């Protein structure tokens, strides 16, 4: 086994939570609002891709215990087609990680470090993540352990002071045009929920297999609740203006003002974002590096971490010429591609696995 | 692979990226989506 480290079921849940929530809170409300309007807060509840991804991952684990997505690919599709399919998957993981790094860089440069070159912000983050990933899955999991209470505390620190400012009428009428707007609004969120497929890479590393299912489900519910809370807060505070901002939740954080003294709490949001983005990039980068090492049949993944980090930095620039094009693709074509890779491919593999298992049983009976 | 990408990007910084490829591959689905899901007015 390439990875010798072991992590707990709770750590898997925390890693998955931090791998999905931070960027979803930042990027999705504006796009969701365009379609869902005042039903924006209902949209995260339609997490179909998450349900499908989790079900598929757990079913694949039951069929092929201790094997991740890439290994299952090679086992089910054979050495040639399996390798080609696994290559496509790992290149896609590298691409998605590049998109995340670019999102992080563009946000930090656009909202806070206005005069800092993008390469410095992205490159330094990738370097730190590479150091963490080189330490192994246990290090990444411990970061998630440490950061999740901080993330929760900062999130609450942003929400609580705003409660008196919220206008409940902004969410009325609830489902005034039926279920369709909130469903349409949830489309872009399916990319984020589909990311639960990453559990496939961490479940084989769990030290107590029994609790993993519950942990993944708890993490999934926590993500939905966090998104509902952040969307609701944004909607109740900004109302019709929600769709006008690229990062509505940042505007919410800037709104906090206690007696003209306790202001500019967007620094808290920046802290949330950096912590969350760090774990998210680490998780995705770890999966990319592990997949590459398994694809190349090498015994150690550590030697390829820094070359992959270089490739990742490059990819983060190459993914899109500017943030506008990337944002547009993030709400259109990337959702379809993510659904293909995170939901349809694993589901197809699961179907094939079931067929092969039944076929095998029949053959042994004959 | 990284070195090849780096050299290619230095020679041609405007080289279409993977997002463009994804845009092309999923263009029919995107146009279908844009027809079905119109942003809500009001």
Question: Could you characterize the architecture of this molecule?
Answer:
- The complex is a heterodimer of chains A (366) and B (42).
- By secondary structure, chain A is an all-alpha fold.
- In chain A, 72% of the residues lie in helices and 0% in strands.
- Chain A contains 15 helices and no strands.
- In chain A, helix 6 (137-159) packs antiparallel against helix 12.
- Chain A starts with 8 loop residues before the first helix and ends with a helix.
- Chain B has 42 residues and is mainly α.
- Helix content of chain B is 67%, strand content 0%.
- Chain B has three helices and no strands.
- Chain B has helices at 2-11, 18-25, 27-36.
- The mean pLDDT of chain B is 78.
- The interface between A and B is medium-sized, with 29 and 23 residues.
Could you provide a short overview of the structure?
By secondary structure, chain A is mostly helical. Chain A contains 15 helices and no strands. The longest helix of chain A is centred in the first third of the chain and has 33 residues, at 79-111.
